Amino acid sequence: MAISKDENTDFIQRACSDPDAFAQLYLLHYNDVFHYCLRRLFDRHSAEDVTSTVFFKVMHDLSSFDGKVTDFRNWLLRIATNAVNDHLRNSKRRADVIQKVVRNTRAESDFVIPSNDKLLEKKAFLKQAILSLKPKYQTVITLRFFENMKLTEIATCLGKNPSTVRSWLWRATEKLRKKLNTAAHNGGSI
Amino acid sequence: MNDNEKYIEEFVNDIPFDAPNEKHRDELKNQLLNAFPKHRLQPTVHTVNVWRTIMKSRISRLAAAAVIVLAGFLALNFFDKTSGIVWAEVVKRLEDIKTGVYKITTDLKGMPGTPEGYTTHITQDVTLSYEQNAVRIDSSMQLPRGTRQSQTYILFEESVLITVMPAQKKYFEVTISDEQMQKMGDEKGDPVTLLKAMLEHEYTDLGRKKINGVAAWGIEVSDPKLGAKMGSFISGGMFDETTVQLWVDEKNELPIRINATGSSKDGKASMETVYDNFQWDIEIEPALLKPEIPDDYELMAQGKWDTGNEGQEIIEVLRLFVEYADGKYPASLKTMTVAKAIAQALKKKFPPGSPEPSKELIARFMKVDRVGMMYTTLEKGGKDPAYYGDKVSAESPEAVLFRWKIDDDTYRVVFGDLSTEDVSAEKLAELENLQR
Hints:
The structure holds two protein chains of two kinds.
Chain A (H helix, E strand, L loop, with lengths): L4 H11 L3 H23 L2 H18 L10 H18 L1 H14 L12 H15 L3 H12 L4 H8 L3 H24 L5
Helix pairs in contact in A: 1-2, 2-3, 2-4, 3-4, 4-8, 5-6, 6-9, 7-9, 8-9
Chain B lengths: L2 H10 L9 H13 L15 H5 L3 H19 L10 H10 L2 E11 L9 E11 L4 E10 L2 E10 L4 E6 L4 E7 L1 H9 L4 H10 L3 E8 L2 E9 L18 E9 L5 E9 L6 E11 L17 E8 L4 H15 L10 H15 L9 H8 L4 H10 L5 E2 L12 E8 L2 E6 L4 E5 H10 L2
Parallel strand pairs in B: 6-12
Antiparallel strand pairs in B: 1-2, 1-11, 2-3, 3-4, 4-5, 5-6, 7-8, 8-9, 9-10, 10-11, 13-14, 14-15, 15-16
Helix pairs in contact in B: 4-5, 4-7, 8-11
């Protein structure tokens, strides 16, 4: 995200009362939020739904953001994390997401970046394996490996102790690796 | 980076993902701008707020409550003239509390669904762990047709509340939004929160007395709003008068007993509650705070607690009266009044032997528990709510039944037939004058 903290703070202050500033702030961060949701949910439509939820919440709660001490992106990702977890919490919905993911594994959409079959197969394994983890483990995996955040940054973003995040990450990576190995050996079944 | 991390990093390295869809981005932008709050004329000041920083995580929020209570003590010089308590030690004690267990015993007259004059005896064994971010309440309720037992778990980490009824082999589950979770963190009904609430009111110093041979100091506060801090789902807006006494052990500087009484003006409802058997910082097995639900237990209903939508939720509660009480609304939006009225209506609609209400209906019915709290939230939030269920029924489709402010000069008006209209303050005054 190519925007300085000061610029962010200025936008945020204006965005509380100025719709144009809010629109600018939204456009600056839309892609980040969408990508994060997509990498958590593996489904474009669910990711768009949750992205909408996130920005309505941001609009509602923007005045509570403390621009001086907290990084806006972390705040945004925390809201997105809660929204994704809320979305996944309903076990039925979670099961539906997994089924949908399996169904859509090879479905091409207008927005899919061209790729080869092997990569799509890898992606299918990854989807199933990640979605079968607990939401908190999904969160740390996504923040660590897709958002490329350091452990301390993840801890700040989630408002957790670094030691807690370290243990979550350790468990999450161990479980994920096992599931990916199992999927690779069982033709996708984990 | 360990082997597992390296493996995953390599695995995800070249995985392709869809690109954002500009159409969705633009549509969402328009939706957001259309919904942009018009009343936000002044930008909000963003100050570094120590409280907000402390409240970053739920665990620290729970622990923070203890610190704030202490700050209240220190600011008020609460005991130090006479008790000789060393406050630096109190700071340490309160900051270091990790677990607590205590018993709540309540005699409640006028509980919804019970015969008039019947007193329900309720005992609750509370186990809370600030470390595990969880609360468990084992309840036993003596009702006319026998004793009902249940276990309720509030799991802050998962934002979920689960109540299990072993005798019935049933359970229900409520997911809780972050805002509501924060509200519960603020009003979760534990002794520390209650003490904080008491110190915010004018209190009477009760001085020293012996409780079970232990020297204790007490304060007393009388305010109906304290009922909402007692942690009971039916206490929000339930009583017209509430008095709470809190006693603190002089030696360990922690609560030793809480007595609370409440009563309604008409004398039909009353409550006497005692919190005691406090034990602090004892070992709690993690398994004790995790619900184990056997496979053969049936999920009765799933609900969701949220905030920010109180007005609409109250309308949903009122809709129950159109469907099940022939459009006769409760006389007030106090939880007790609403619960009693809907309980009577449901008794008629579902006489003994009827099929059990659907999960959807139970989920809707569960909202009744919070209706008093929702109305209070509107009041506290400056939304200027008013309710006329004592005069208006579904047979008066043009009369104002309920209203609240949605903007600086706009009210949402709910008419007798539950249709709604957004009107100016001037127009609202005209409408309300018509029915005077």
